Fold this protein.
Amino acid sequence: MTSVLVVDDQDLVRAGFVALLDAVPDVRVAGEARNGLEAVEKALELRPDVILMDIRLPELDGVKATERILARAGPDKPNVLMLTVFDLDEYVYTALRAGAAGFLLKDSPPETLIAGIHAVARGDMLFGPTITRRLVEAFTQAPPEKPAAPPALTGLTERELEVLRFVGTGVPNSDIARSLLVSEATVKTHLNRLMTKLGISSRAQAVVVAYETGLVRPRDP
């Protein structure tokens, strides 16, 4: 059973998501929040598996709320699925940097939303290589302010660099395992180790690091 916190400032939209998820047998709505501050409070209180988070919220936007939640959640961090009106929303890149597991358009079909919740609950990202490249293309054309010191890759092993390069181009663990002739469990081990070394907590953040450090370029195949 996957527990979900639904965060949206529009009552009708939020009620629609709740009604939809209530009809899914293996999903439980843990709670609702109307703004970013309430989302942080409810997330730490209810400890949901997944947070369905609108990017644009009053009081505290979805990106900042995500940062606070993941910083305070401890080892059992929720997987945050951001909701946006536009597929290249100005906040999408910063949401991924903050640790969101992916994003969905608000007008996505119900089956897409449900599949997305299941995907991020498993620890997967919700977007593939095409969307990843589009996001990074947009970033390179109009870059937001970068951190003063991007994470260095010098502490990673050659195999960890290979895994990070695959992750950076949106390749799932199963395909990485086939390419490297190892098991998916081994890929997950490498991924967990490299994220620990880089001080990041999500696969989406690993994608950002791969691009920011130049390990992957926007037009790499």
The chain is about 50% helix and 15% strand. Residues 94 and 145 are 10 Å apart (CA to CA). Residues 184-198 form the longest helix (15 residues).
